[in-house]
Amino acid sequence: MRIKRGFVPIVMVLLAISLPSLAAIDIHQFDSPEKEALYKKLTGELRCTVCQNQSIGESNADLAKDLRRKTYEMVSAGKDEQFVLDFMTQRFGDFILLRPPFQNNTLALWIGPLVILIVAVFFLIKFIRRSVNDIPLTDTDRAQAEHLLERDE
Amino acid sequence: MKRYLIPFAIFVVLVVFLAIGLKLDPTYIPSPFIGKPAPEFNLPDLHNPDQRLKASDLKGQVWLLNVWASWCTACRAEHPVIQRLAAMNIAPVYGLNYKDKPEDAKKWLRELGDPYKANLVDRNGDVGIDWGVYGVPETFVIDKKGIIRYKYIGPINNRVVDDEIVPLLRKLNAEVG
Amino acid sequence: MIPEIGQFALILGMVFALVQTVVPLAGAHFGIASWVAVAKPAARVQLLFVAISFIALSWSFLTHDFSVKYVAVNSNTALPTFYLLSAVWGAHEGSLVLWALVLSIWTTSVTVFSRSIPPVTLARVLGVMGFISVGFILFILVTSNPFERLVPAAMEGRDLNPLLQDIGLILHPPLLYMGYVGFVVPFSFAIAAMLGGHLDAAWARWSRPWTHVAWVFLTLGILLGSWWAYYELGWGGWWFWDPVENSSFIPWLVGTALMHSLAVTEKRGTFKAWTVLLAIFTFSLSLLGTFLVRSGVLTSVHAFASDPARGTFILIFLAVVVGGSLLIYSWRASQIRSYVHFDLLSRETGLLLNNVFFVVAAISILLGTLYPLIVDALGIGKISVGPPYFNSVFLPLMVPMVILLGIGPLLRWKRDSFSRIWPKIWLIAVISLVVGPLIPLLAMGPYEIRATFGMMLAIWVLGATLKSLFEQTRGRGFATVSRSFWGMILGHIGVAVFIVGITLTSVYSTEKDLRLDPGDSYELAGFKFQFDGTTKIIGKNYSGTKAKLTVTKNGKYIATMEPEKRNYRVQKQPLTEAAIDAGLFRDLFVALGEPLGSKGAWSVRIYHKPFLRWIWLGALIMALGGLFAASDRRYRKLAGRAKKQRAVTIEAVS
Questions:
Q1: Residues of C in contact with A52 (CB under 8 A)
Q2: Which of C131, C216, C134, C138 is nearest to C178 (CA)?
């Protein structure tokens, strides 16, 4: 079901792809500051599926506006963050989430950095412990070295 | 000695992925609905707004949903193919008129021909969102049980119709509803 | 005529780059002195021709030569002159000519500032740089020719994208490229040293100033990109973890690790193999960035128009250059190992740990950037990786790094002890724990744990850095402190300032989207914004609306802010020009949305962003530190000594 590459650009042109130049400003009334904050957070967590890598909060594309409207409706109705994210994921797949969910195909992504860090530090310590000085120092050498180390530049 | 080759080995793997990446489309979104029930809708007909149609009404038959709009240039290019597909009479094609003005839609159909069994009006795009529509035109194939079996994003052409859609329609028609 | 000259000059440039590559490298291998001597003149002539090409392209823009396709697509007769010049690098083809020009400028610089480098080594260095030049110019000629003609010529150009009609476009790409491309110098030094088969501390000493300068340019380039995005894009963001942004940040991280690693290799003779690998990585990441940005494998608001043919060419070039370097590395690395011991608690370990953190951070960002591609290629799904991921991963990685930053400079080389270091740092730790929470509480208002934590880190860095300055000058006075040391001090103070900026602006920024009718006012963060209405405006190639807002605080006048909404005539793209009242301690930001109704009401977004400028100020201080380090006396002394040596030799001979 892959479409030919050439059609995507047409599709995107048709949808008046978002121009980052327009601040996506909607006027919404909220019952409470918590709801307003949740709305703002969600517009940063959902991807504009027709744009070149923007959140629905950043884009003024038609679809982004529609998705913001839906988000507003759900937040106003008292739904929580997970409900809205699930709603969007059901319809557009994981692609719409800017924070990749923690699941089988993202294990390497979420755990990777920590694992690499631990492995790197482990090898670092091993390397330092193992390294050997093969030039023996005399006492005068040592004293001179101490003096130089003290100067410390 | 061998371990100094590790950076090179990792790099080779990276290049392989990048090469594969050149053939992929990073903006293409596969539909999460394949194999899942078609989302319900309850929409007015374009020509008879008093009449409404629900997705569940269409159970028991194989049908296509073609999402289009009069402001969409590619829909214009795809239209003759839709007409051809509808004329084959293998399965009815329903239109979802997406975020359009009914007068413009009707004028468009008068001008280019109306192959649709019925056209449903989705003024504000909510049904589009429910179906995961992100670019028009899009075409869905739904089976007798109301499960979405196929989605094509972008204007369909004759090759897609002949090689993918028609065989699928025949297969689904043979299934028990 | 001129475009043809430009194209021909490019071809000649490539020919001389080829000569610059093949002849000296062969000469170095076979020991033929006359071939080795070809490197310098070939490099300089290459610059001449690439410059001619660049000038020819600029000329085509200035004279509105719409028979050249690139000019027709990217400019217009109504385009103001300075944007005509910057439009040269406003799109893919022209930006590559800029790349080639910057590369040949760096190459010629190396021919000038290399008096202390033996000719054979220099020949190899210039040979490697020549190879890169050949690749890029070939890429331009084969896939991305800016001099391609448009037949018949257009009557009028399509105009430069309005977003790019800005001083940001004039400054950001050249600075960024100077940095990005500049890392070719340490890269070439590393390859040259490995080809030559010996790697001593001299290699590190030669490489350091070049690395510092390239790093400074990259820092400034990224800083400018962030600043430009902030005021141009209309929603007050300054970093988006976009793939193109990441493509410049990843080499910066590894470049910073390289800088620190070179310091150790020069002073202590250790980490040689590792530093060489870092030098290879940094430039490789620049090349990878070039690939990611121009091939279309990733979606980005910044991406140039992509084309699979171009992507394939760059990928092959990338594979050859990086693959080749890593193969040479694996061949020679065992011979350049250093056998010097140092303790687990020592400055060497501190710097190695620094390297580890920076490289792991770079790998993490690269992983996040490429992961959607990897998952898609493996057919296991379709996901996005956006700012929430990068923030979750990058920030925790940086915390231990920042803590280490304070301790590192205070550690002794080779061997230190906990009992020696603890007295130096415990007080600073206490001060940061105490003062950290105080500043946000006193200055900003509501208690926020994130702000406290960030401020504690910033004060820790500042305190520890000042302590190491104090240690250095104790009994000796400030005059004896080398520029190199000042470089470190400034660099680390820059980090502290940067952390303050990021912490306070992320935590305490406030914004409001609202409808304003003429005469309405709104209060945000103690500032009262009064909407005075709008007027129509006409510019050279646009028309639009300008709004006026008067800002007061406690009745006192603060500023008049005039955001605009412009419609560019040719590209028909509406553009928001936000109004910004900049201040050292806060920014006020107003952007126009849409007109509402018929009575002059508009939707508006208002921001209050405290300490935002400290982010760029911190980066600026870091860059200044880099400049200090690059201009250290001993590098200039080296050149002087080499001159004297030659003078002595000449005397001896005559």
A1: 299-301, 303
A2: C216
C323 is a domain residue: yes
Classified as helix, coil or strand, C348 is helix
Q: Both C201 and C289 in a single domain?
A: yes
Domain count along chain C: 4
Of the three residues C360, C381, C416, the one that is the final residue of a domain is C416
Interface test with B, best of A5, A7, A123 (most B CBs within 10 A): A7
Q: Which of A8, A62, A93 is the closest to B32 by Cβ?
A: A93
The whole-angstrom distance between C352's CA and the closest CA on chain A is: 8
Instruction: Report pLDDT for C646.
Output: 56
Instruction: Indicate if C111 and C225 belong to the same structural domain.
Output: no
Q: Is B59 helix (H, G, I), strand (E, B) or coil?
A: coil
The answer to whether residues C523 and C510 touch, using CB atoms and an 8 Å cutoff, is no
Q: Three-class SS of residue B36? A: coil
- Residues C368 and C446 reside in one and the same domain: no
Q: What's the pLDDT tens digit per position in B74-90?
A: 999 999 999 999 999 99
Q: Would residue C422 count as lying in a domain?
A: no
Task: Please give the full DSSP string across C444-489, using - where no structure is assigned.
Answer: I-S--HHHHHHHHHHHHHHHHHHHHHHHHHTTT-GGG--HHHHHHH
Radius of gyration of chain B (CA): 20
Q: Do C582 and C646 belong to one domain?
A: no
A-C interface: how many C-beta pairs under 8 angstroms? 168
Structure tokens that stand for A122 in this block: 């482990």
Token pair in block for residue C264: 């150790």
Q: What is the tens place of the pLDDT at every residue in C543-579?
A: 899 999 999 999 899 999 999 998 888 777 788 888 9
C-alpha–C-alpha distance, residues C431 and C435, integer Å? 6
Q: Which positions in chain B touch A14 (Cβ < 8 Å)?
A: 71-74, 135-136
The verdict on domain A7-101 having CATH code 3.30.565.10 is: no
Say yes or no for a CB contact (<8 Å) between B30 and C382.
yes
| Whether C520 and C501 share a structural domain | no
Of C139, C165, C191, the domain-final residue: C165
Q: Which domain covers residue C473, as residue numbers?
A: 432-508+616-654
CA–CA distances in Å: residue A37 to residues A28, C238, C437, C505, C512: 12, 20, 24, 17, 11
Contact C65/C3 with Cβ under 8 angstroms?
yes
Asked if C342 lies within 8 A of A129 by C-beta distance, the reply is: no
ipTM computed for the complex: 0.90
Task: Say yes or no: C296 and C410 in one domain.
Answer: yes
pLDDT digits (tens, 9 = 90+) for C210-230: 999 999 999 999 999 999 889
Residue C474: CB atoms within 10 Å: 8
C214: its two tokens:
């390239």
d(CA A12, CA B73): 11
Check C342 against A131: CB less than 8 A apart.
yes
The confidence score (pLDDT) of residue C21 equals: 95
Q: Which domains does chain B have, with CATH numbers?
A: 33-174 (3.40.30.10)
Which of A3, A67, A90 is facing B153, going by the closest CB pair? A3
Residue C377 is assigned to a structural domain of this protein: yes
pLDDT score for A39? 95
3-state SS class at B89: coil
C423, part of any domain: no
